[in-house]
Amino acid sequence: MIQSAIVVASLVPWANRANLICGSTVVPWTVKAGLSVKSVLFVCRGNLCRSPMAMAILCHRLTAVSAAHIVKVDSAGYYDWGAFPREAHPFARRAVEQLCGIDLLAEHVAKRWDSVMVEQASKIVVAEEWMKQDFPVGKVATMCELGGVPGDVPDPYGGDYPAFVDCARLIERLICTGIQTLRD
């Protein structure tokens, strides 16, 4: 299940390779000595649309850049779906597949964020400004702040497929602009 994505260092101590694991996709990633673990947590309302799309897009983008860190990428929401587990919205899955060329959310199951996730995260990225109040000041930023712009990423839930594609493209632009912030 794609509950999170993580770059895992090679088991061979002298190797300078790692694998980015995102769902069933394994992509080689060159790493350097002195690795430090970084953890990025994306948060939105239901963990059905924006935060899982951001998680998948960052995972995909990290494969395209040289990295000197091990990065764990996860997503969560405010809702606890309890006995009714929810997968990523079908339009979110299709939008990610359109952008990334693979359905990275095929096995995503929505979950609520908790204090352990917050404690373990190096950076918490929220979809809306009001969400920042629930997280430590030094760790949290909005998706828009990553891209150096004010505002919130609009929730596409309830919208049509083009609304999800627009949202995914916006998230991708913001992540690409702020990817160094997430790795530092």
Topology of this structure?
Elements: E1 4-9, E2 17-22, E3 25-30, E4 37-44, H1 50-62, E5 70-77, H2 90-100, H3 115-120, E6 123-126, E7 140-142, H4 143-146, H5 161-183
Parallel strand pairs: 4-5, 4-6, 6-7
Antiparallel strand pairs: 1-2, 1-5, 2-3
What's the short story on this structure?
Helix content is 31%, strand content 22%. With 184 residues, it is an alpha/beta fold.
Distinctive features:
alpha/beta, 184 residues, 7 strands, seven-stranded mixed β-sheet, disordered N terminus
Task: Provide an overview of this structure.
The relative contact order is 0.20. The chain is built from five helices and seven strands; from the N terminus they run ββββαβααββαα. Mean pLDDT is 81; it is low at 1-35. Helix 1 runs parallel beside helix 2. The protein has a seven-stranded mixed β-sheet. With 184 residues, it is of the alpha/beta class. The protein has one domain: Response regulator (Rossmann fold, 3-Layer(aba) Sandwich), CATH 3.40.50. It has helices at residues 50-62, 90-100, 115-120, 143-146, 161-183, and strands at 4-9, 17-22, 25-30, 37-44, 70-77, 123-126, 140-142. Helix content is 31%, strand content 22%.
Secondary-structure-derived class? alpha/beta
CATH topology title: Rossmann fold
Radius of gyration: 15 Å
Shape: globular
In which range does the helix fraction lie?
Answer: 25-40%
> N- to C-terminal separation?
28 Å
The CATH architecture assignment turns out to be: 3-Layer(aba) Sandwich
Strand arrangement, major sheet: 3-2-1-5-4-6-7
Question: Considering the protein shown, what is the CATH homologous superfamily?
Answer: Response regulator
Could you name the CATH class? Alpha Beta
Q: Report the biggest beta sheet as strand number plus sense, adding barrel if it closes.
A: 7 strands, mixed
Weakly predicted, low-confidence segments: 1-35
- Give the beta-strand count: 7
